[in-house]
Amino acid sequence: MSVAPQTAPPPASALHVLGALALELRGDAPVARDRLAPTEIGALAALVARDLAKLAPEATMLELVTVGAHFDPIELLRPGWPLHRELDELAARAPRDPAAPLDAGRVIAFGAHEQQLPGALSPSADFIGGPLRLVPFVLSGGAEVVARVGDTFERDLLERGMAGADTALAAQDAFGLAVEHARYLTVHDLAAMMAMQYEHAGLAPLWPLLETALLEPDGEAWLDALPEPLVRYAQGEARIAMFTPAAWHARYAPDAPCDSEEGRERQYRQHRHFEARQRQIAAVLAAHGVAVNFVHCDDAGLAREALT
């Protein structure tokens, strides 16, 4: 079940299912629009609500909150799920009919007014252009219903979560995208997909640390596997060991000859490659919203202690 981790425990009656309408795009077609007006997202949200109810009928008893914008996966996969949390917090301010039953679901869709989305719901221009775009949603309501719907979605969305053909077409037309497939994912499904993508991109060693940041923000994880940089995640931040040249040599190339021009040149290239890998890892962590700090380390044998 995709229940949002929060800094303070939520009330038992206000759990959440976190997910997204995932739009897989064709080719390199440019993104025409990344935000919709309220009436446009209202029509799309109604189709999303219908699709989700087909997958889990009790979803009609929950509140569906979404936004007229699409995002890169990296914007959703951040500790504390800040984009989903923003949706939930904005929805909490929306007036509700006091006569409406508590188990009567409703749809809240935030759109752009004069191209401005409310709160912190604007997609970043830094991540436009990827092949997968996501329209996030939150389902909230009574704890028992949320638990059942969440369990159904975690079990079934990857296999049965295709959006309706009219939903895919509506999203394509509204955003001006070339949509190949449209499906629904929980944030856990999305994390699993990202893990596979990072494996293919050569970033598999980093994923356990990122997964801890996402699913257990108060936890601890290490990247401590040669020849990778040394990284510790704890207390909401990633600390990366910044080795002096001598400390780097002692940890990463203790047997490398450096008494010849050729040996020194090879070691120089290895060190440059290591520094590039450090920058890559720091950039990936920062893009996921993980704070990054470099810690000076002049003794390879005390490197782990330097990060604690």
Biggest sheet descriptor: 5 strands, mixed
> If you compute it from the alpha carbons, what radius of gyration comes out, rounded to the nearest whole angstrom?
23 Å
Spatial strand sequence of the major β-sheet: 3-2-4-1-5
Determine the structural class based on helices, strands and strand pairing: alpha+beta
Helix content: 40-55%
How many helices in DSSP terms?
10
The whole-number mean of residue pLDDT values reads 89
Give the distance, in angstroms, between the N- and C-terminal Cα atoms.
Answer: 33 Å
What is the approximate shape?
elongated
Kindly give the count of domains.
2
What sequence of helices (H) and strands (E) makes up the elements?
Answer: EHEHHEEHHEHHEEEHHEH
| Number of beta strands | 9
Oligomer: single chain
Note the beta-strand portion: 15-25%
Low-pLDDT parts are 1-14
